[in-house]
Amino acid sequence: MFENIIAFFKNTKKSEKNTNNSKDAAKERLHLVLMQDRANVSADFLDLMRQEIIDVIKKYIEVDENEIDVRLTNKQNADGTTGAPALYANIPIVNIKQDQKIKDKQEEVNDQKKVIQEVKQIINENKQEEKEEDKEEKKKEKKLKTKEKTEK
Predict the structure, then answer these.
(1) Three-class SS state of 70
(2) Cα→Cα distances 128→27, 67, 132, 133, Å
(3) Is this model's pTM higher than 0.85 or not?
């Protein structure tokens, strides 16, 4: 975004020789300053926000970073008056990363399978412990019965 603004200001210096272009350039500069002021954000903040938006999008979509246009605009109300500032983002998509989506889903499924296996293993261990406890109980009962028989 700020590359565009910097390029704009560079072009403005070149075109200020022409009065008409100078007027338009001054109007555009004032427009940018007003938008930043109304949104109450700094240029650094906008640049940081732009980069974070791009980073998130790049996880899922391949984009042409040189052609990305992120800027503040003023939303027009239904009655034609200028409304609140709005964030405008024009992000050209080169390719959607289907492979990454598939890999992410596969990892998620594999993680779930691991959890299921761990739960099954715990259940089997508990069943085994219960069987051993039952065997011990039966042995004790058997000893008690044997002892009772011998005492009679």
Answers:
(1) strand
(2) 81, 64, 6, 9
(3) no
